[in-house]
Design a protein that fits this description.
Length: 425
Amino acid sequence: MERAARLSSLTGHGAQPFHLKLAVSEPANPKSPYSATIEEYWKSSKDWYRSISSPDFKQVVVVRDGLRTEQNIGGYYPLWLRSFVIAATDPLEDSSFWEKISAKVVLGTSPDGHPSSTCARAQFKIGTAALSNDAFAVICFNGDGTLSSVVRPGYDMEFHDAQAFGKKRIAFRYVDDPEPGTELVGKVELLDKIEPSDNIPDLPQPSAQTLGQLKNIPIGQETFEKLLKSPINIVWPHVHSGNTAGKLSMYVSVDRDGQIREAYPLNSDNAGLQDAVRDQLLKVQLKPGVFEGQQVQIEAALTFQFSTALDGSSEPSTPDSNQQTQQDNKPVVVGKSIMNAMHLKVYAPVYPQDLKERRVSGNVDLTAIIGRDGRVMSLTPLSSANAEFTQAAIAAVKQWTYKPYLLNGSPVEVQTVITVVFQAP
């Protein structure tokens, strides 16, 4: 982790002054509200400037001689946007998180026996003492020591297309999947070295902006529930398939007025309930969170117990009938971030020689069905930069193995998306 911080962080150990421009979008949805531009001039931890612009939130931060001043337009700093700011400048900002959990290091190997990747993984509990659920965290490193991906509640990012910048190797493309079916991409449009003597922008003249630092504080579910104006009573809709009883966990972000603004799935015994739960959570109101006398944004992992029924059925199923229902229906859809945290063996693809010689890079997305034993049952190409990449990706991925995905304590088949990256040396 220390090596990755040195290599992958623009503002970490050995940093040099820089000017960065990053554009964030949802390529599959041109009208998406997930769009932003981020620009930063950085000389040192005591002298830097950052500008963030998105449809509903704008921020300018200036630090001079260690004194921070900021202006905000829009009262809520989105969680997804903050993730890209962290990833592009200091991707291991919250290193203390990894010190608090017990993570197991797994070394991935290629078919020829050489190391391909190293990951540290952990499974831990979220929720309350009375009701908890499993959550996952994984941090992976490339063979050259750079950061490959980070997955933990509240922060999920992949790092691609690393390029040399001084003594560092900085990712030029970032990918975040905040929820199934939504893929956000951040692309570096400019990364230049600046001189210590260069002037960097200052804070604009204040107008309708809000002065004062906008803080974000993570809290536990029990603290979260004390701030609720009224208890959360989820109305569980009937489901088309899968379990009708179990647990569901979401990660929420709350604005300074106490309104839940974002809710993303973490783990669920039935993924078909996640959209309905998110819609209801976005209507929940809390008392404003206060820290050091100041109203702050808060975020928390929440776990719920659900009980519902299948369409056409008036009664919830028993645990035994849940298992039979899952066997008779399609696999449970699980986000790739969660499945990435459950790898046991990962083999790097063999790079097609002609593409390697021509320094051709690209990605392959595969729809995978993972069996109850954690083995890959089938692979279907979703998209690919090159047909040769597709063949190489399938040949590698079909050898991967996972920890069995459990629902109500029983292993089930799952469907997920696997992305294989081919990065020319």
